[in-house]
Amino acid sequence: MGNTACGQWCGKLCDGNEEDKESKRRSTIRPEKSEKRAKKRKEKAEKRCQRSKENSPAKILDQKEFYDEFSSSDYEDSDYGDIHTKPSFTRKGYCKQMFKEFIYDWIKENLESETALAKFIKLGPFKVKTRDAGASDDTSSYKIQKKVEYGKGTSKENNGKKMKSLYFGEFLGNCKQGRGVYLENKQNLYEGFFVNDKPEGKGRLIYSNGDVYQGEFENGQFFGYGKLVTKTGFCQGNFKDGRLNGIALEIMKQSPKDKYFGNFVNGMKHGEGELIFEDGDEYNGEFKNNKFHGEGTMMHANGDVYTGYYKDSLRNGRGKFTFKSGKVYAGYFENNMFEGQGTLTKKDGNSYEGNFHLGKRHGEGYHIDKKGKRTRVRYKNGEEVK
User: Fold this and answer.
1) pLDDT of 253-269, one tens digit each?
2) In what ranges is there compositional bias, type Basic and acidic residues (predicted)?
3) Distance CA 116, CA 134 (A)
4) CB burial readout 280-318, b (16+ within 10 A) else e
5) Measured between alpha carbons, how far is residue 170 from residues 150, 180, 220, 263, 337 in Å?
6) How far apart are CA 112 and CA 119, in angstroms?
7) 3-state class (DSSP) for residue 130
8) Dist CA 379 CA 338 (whole Å)
9) Is residue 71 predicted with pLDDT exceeding 50?
């Protein structure tokens, strides 16, 4: 008897082979869901067909779809040290994927015809053999396309019998040109655009340790706006020659968990910026080579506030230090201590105006009461000399 369903819709199937039963069960129990899936598959197939016809790198670069894909990428919010969380072929359901799992799943999802190679890449070692005519398509053999002078193709680099690097994408004059995916030295995966064999334009670089950079490249280096996620922290801003240059945000995720927003030069804090420390202290001012240097304000978590000049992250030069207790010192500093001429005013209004050394009153000065009366005094190492 042929495979038939019950006369009325009830979600049950009559006798038939298991494959037909399964297909009928899917279409019978949730017909609307099955139709949606079929529609999505058809749309994806049409898009792939359309992209395959447009071999010109210039046309690919103009595709807004690719840029939208980057801006909505789900790995931006990933946990540090993992690639991202998504449905995995490697393990059932949602999971946080490590690097090899990500490589395998990416190839299986985006290059469905390369399943044999994908399995072999995951299971390793990275050996790829050319399949002979009539050979079975198993994990030990797979046909690799040769480089093409123009259009889409695949290339690999070998180190002896083991595969060193693998590239899927577009070529121009035997060079990687246009959109492609490059697995380098079995470690780092780059997905994006190439110019003359080097990453250039929008791209995403995933390191084997889980670090991820997403943004703009030039001549194979981070160049332009981008985001870098590592196990120790996150930074977002402008890059030049692989380093932060210009305005950027940096957040550390391991102790000390500091946050910085401001200017960078060659990867170092340099210029105007704001730094928030893990303990609650906040500095707003000038930096030089990752150190406080120039004019700035430090607001301590305990309520103390300093406004003035810094050198090599130490208070040096003229400044004003306001204590939580209400006491205020205005004058000169050297290596974080009162040094030279200054005025120390107590909360009750009485003050001392004179010389300081190593943070203590030292030398000649005046006691000034809150009514303005001045009395000449002399100090040595903080002790008044009668």
Assistant:
1) 888 889 999 999 999 99
2) 21-35, 43-60
3) 16
4) eeebbbbbbeebbbeebebbbeeeeebbbbbbeeebbee
5) 7, 6, 17, 37, 63
6) 11
7) coil
8) 14
9) no
For residue 7, what are the contacts with CB-CB under 8 A and spacing of at least 6?
Answer: none
Q: Specify the pTM.
A: 0.62
Asked if residues 7 and 14 have their Cβ atoms less than 8 Å apart, the reply is no
Angstrom CA distances, 55 to 49, 70, 148, stand at: 11, 21, 12
Tell me which residue of 299, 257, 261 sits closest to 278, measured CA to CA: 257
Spatial distance between the Cα atoms of 67 and 79, rounded to a whole number of angstroms:
23
Mean pLDDT along residues 102-130: 46
DSSP 41-108: HHHHHHHHHHHHH---HHHHHT-HHHHHHHHT-GGGGPPTTS--EEE-SSSSSEEE--HHHHHHHHHH
Place of tokens 């205005």: 330
Instruction: Please provide the DSSP assignment of 355-376 as one string.
Output: EEETTEEEEEEEEE-TT--EEE
- Contact assessment for residue 225 and residue 214, using Cβ atoms and an 8 Å cutoff: no
Nearest-angstrom CA–CA distance, 161 and 177: 27
- Amino acid in the structure at residue 1: M
